[in-house]
Amino acid sequence: YTLNGSIQKIARNVFVLAPSNIDIVSDNENNLYSKDVANWELDD
Description:
Layout: E1 6-11, E2 14-18, E3 22-25, E4 39-42
Antiparallel strand pairs: 1-2, 3-4
């Protein structure tokens, strides 16, 4: 996270930390709070 990564809050007290070459993608922010898994994309 400290090397240009990102942090996303996905639920109360739940965060996802990802390196700079990984994007956390959701069509709708509300989807992140459901039981569905967020899509992950690798930046080449």
